[in-house]
Amino acid sequence: MKAIIQDLDAQGLKAVAARFGQPAFRAKQLHEGLLQGKNISAVTTLPAAFKEALLGEFEDCAVRVERVFEGSDGTKKYLFALADGNIVEGVLMKYSYGNTQCVSTQVGCRMGCKFCASTLGGLVRNLTAGEILSQILVVNALEGGTKSARAVTNVVLMGSGEPFDNYANVVAFLKNLCSPEGLNISPRNISLSTCGLVDKMYAFAEEGIPLNLTVSLHATTDAERARTMPVANKWSIAEILGACDNYFKRTGRRFIFEYSLIEGENCDGRHAGELVELLKGRPCHVNLIRLNEVKERTLKATDSKSAYRFLGLLQKGGLSATLRRQIGSDIGGACGQLRAGYLGNRSEGR
Ligand code: SAH
User: Fold this and answer.
1) What is the pLDDT of residues 116-134, one digit of tens each?
2) Which atom in ligand 1 lies closest to the alpha carbon of residue 290?
3) Is the pTM of this model over 0.85?
4) What are the extents of the domains in the chain?
5) What is the CB neighbour count within 10 angstroms for residue 346?
6) Which residue's CA is the nearest one to ligand 1's atom 11?
7) I want to staple 154 with a disulfide (CB 3.0 to 4.6 A). Which of 71, 80, 100, 230 is the partner?
8) Which CATH class is domain 62-347?
9) What is the CA(254)–ligand 1 centre distance, in A?
């Protein structure tokens, strides 16, 4: 694979233009074109010889939309093809306050969570910063957005992959995404979800990107967490909470816990009590999700009534908590489901 031009920021593009003997305004034109979600070859303002030179070094198209599935609630799921033929997925969710795009950070994942479809085939490779950014650039363009009037207003890093297992590329992507010369999205409108890589959580607190840090908790004791999340063998819940407290101290941002309700596993009265004990008094919010059942997995979702009961217990205990409304479930809304289904069908020749 050639290099990905969207990996570069304004400064990097300027350096490339200079290297090819082009004046600085050509770098600007190139940047404008890329921010419009265009391939290099489609940036009409540039001279053909410059584009040809660029194409000797860079992929013309970092991310191509392979398929779009539209749910009955307006949610759109995208399958993106990368230049090397790998597939990742993304989602665009429409809310009253704007559109939130969920992006992938890796092809596959090596974290091994028992409920998750993204990790079924392990990690294939990391995405580059520009491949992550391009998912947003192409969707923004498809939805009729521009650089200044963005159709994508919010971004969540909750597609396939563990963002902190691809730390350098994810940080470069975020810096580019928030840059005033780029899409200029505020960190307040970005959420990053991690399964709890504690060392990276501390490092990230120093990056100067005060986004909404979200941690996938899904259990109240280390032993129970290890049953569904192998990462619990490496980092304890106490260490995770310490890293969250530090994040708040360094950024002033309250943090969020994801808690997927799995029948018979993590959502009876005892769990609610333990969760309250763990989180009481902390500047945090709990996002409950009813498990999206994945056909390759045996874990079951809890019913809606029990989910509301669990929510009530958390709120009675003084926690800020909500039950996430399920969106896009008719189109394989859960992490990695769409890609897994697509790859499955492809190999079965359908
Ligand atoms: N690797 C990161 C981000 C990706 S997943 C992380 O672990 O946080 C985004 C969220 O969806 C995580 O909280 C993850 O645990 C959760 N998730 C994955 N598969 C799920 C499923 N089948 N049902 C409900 N939530 C799921």
Assistant:
1) 999 999 999 999 999 999 9
2) 24
3) yes
4) 1-61, 62-347
5) 10
6) 335
7) 100
8) alpha beta
9) 20
